[in-house]
Amino acid sequence: MVKIKKLTKHIIKDRDLDLTHMSDYDELDNEVALAWHPASGILVGEWMNILSNYGLARDRKLFFGVNNFGMPTCFFDASNKAELSKLVDEQSEVNRTKFMNPKKMEKDERL
Questions:
Q1: Predicted confidence (pLDDT) per residue in 62-107, tens digit
Q2: Residue 25: partners with Cβ closer than 8 Å, 6 or more residues away
Q3: Beta bridge pairs of residue 35
Q4: Which of 56, 59, 72, 91 has the fewest Cβ atoms within 10 Å of its own Cβ atom?
Q5: What string of DSSP letters covers 51-78?
Q6: What is the tens place of the pLDDT at every residue in 18-55?
Q7: Cβ distance 73 to 33 under 8 Å?
Q8: Are 98 and 91 in contact (CB under 8 A)?
């Protein structure tokens, strides 16, 4: 049989803090961008405040915009659209060297 506890104000307050107060920012350190989603359970303004606090704590630039799905998005390591565009171009160059032509790689692997 499942044991059910009463949902107290203390438990509700603790769970609310789970969404709005991260214990540490380690998970965000490797992110390039992070989009808000309605299912996150927090308002866009609250989400932006959380990420702004992260940016200040980790000394990372942030740029808020809207992604191609219409969702508010935080882009890290850029403070405006021009910096973001430059960062995307730089990442594209890096990714081109990482992901070579798959057909060519198959031939090379056969050798």
A1: 999 998 899 999 999 999 999 998 988 887 766 655 545 555 555 5
A2: 54, 57, 58
A3: 73
A4: 59
A5: HHHHHHHHT--EEEEE-TTS-EEEEET-
A6: 545 566 677 788 888 999 989 888 899 999 998 998 99
A7: yes
A8: no
Considering 8-12, 13-17, 38-42, the range whose residues carry the highest mean pLDDT is 38-42
Q: What is the dihedral of CA 32, 38, 43, 48, to 10 degrees?
A: 10
pLDDT score for 66: 92
> Which amino acid appears at position 9 of this protein?
K
Token duo for residue 30:
């490797």
The predicted model gives 2-16 an average pLDDT of 69
Q: Of the candidates 16, 33, 28, which has an alpha carbon nearest to the alpha carbon of residue 78?
A: 33
φ and ψ of 22, to 5 deg: -80, 140
Strand pairing report for 33-35 and 72-76: antiparallel
